Amino acid sequence: MKLRLHENIKKLRKEKGLTQERLAEILDVSIGAVSKWESASNTPDIETIAILADFFDVSIDALLGYDISSKKIKDIVEQIYALSGMHKFDEAQAVSRDALTRYPHDFLICYTSASLYQLMALEKEDMKAARQAIKLYEEAKDHLSQNDDPGINEFTLNLNIASCYAFFDEKKAIKIFKENNFAGISDAVMAFTYLKMGETDESLKCSTGGIIKNLFGLLNCASYMMMALTMRKDKKSTDSAFELCENSLALIRMFKTKETGYLSKFEALFLVMKAYIYAIMGKEDLMESYLKEGKILARQYDMSSSNNIAKDIKFYYDKKESFIGFDSLGESAVEGIRKTINENVKKIPNIDQKIVDHILLKWDSL
Fold first, then answer.
1. Residue 205 lies in a domain
2. Are both 89 and 61 inside the same structural domain?
């Protein structure tokens, strides 16, 4: 094991933007003492090491810099997750308590322990576990600078904290969810929380927003997946793309009203995609048939020019009378679809340019 105490003191001091003089002043020691610690010509006593660890917000093991420390922490984390996965909560808690005693300032230990108690709260509706999870998530936020997982940040920690509050303080949970509802990510859990509170109208409003955002997110991803599958140029992938296109059209038709509206523009686009897949399959008649159907629908949309999703979706229960949709197709579906094919699809590397040009030619001639 290699001790890196002197390197870490210098590194952590600089991360805090402190000079040796300022650190010495804070710790009430001489400048010479700090200089000797950092040059490894002297070592602080155990009490000072504890003070330094607390000041720099790291564990003593982390400050000392033992190579074995990070491995130990990873092993502990894996053990907690493994025991949690087997629902051995008593054993997992024992490991967590011991780890928190040894590494009270370690982000990963705090976060993993918080996750354990949140799982206990979910499975057992244990309010005490929910409170402990909140406490540990808050501590994890204090040590967030140690985190190297891009999927974990203050935003995700706040969502976990709000989920835990929902077990015993729904109003507090809603407040945090609203503060962190970027791109409607909290709509579903807010709908459920409002439902538990007996606030039906608010639950319907959140459900409506969640359905709209997720519907268009799903359709976008489906369209990109279809294109990627067709570019594999094997029958299995092409068949999968066709099935995904059919299901996407069924989804659009499930949510749209009978009248021509905003969703009609996307139905027209997916009909063109279906025609494109038929072109890849070499089925010219079916390609022309679905292109024609898509063109008719696109023209119908252009005649109505409605971007108000509220009037075009079956399950709309928000009190607001309008929910304006924005997309890259623009005001005209006919021109927007042509532009999408010509400026986006055609520029995809390795796309079959002949088929794309053929589709464009047919689209313009209809």
1. no
2. no
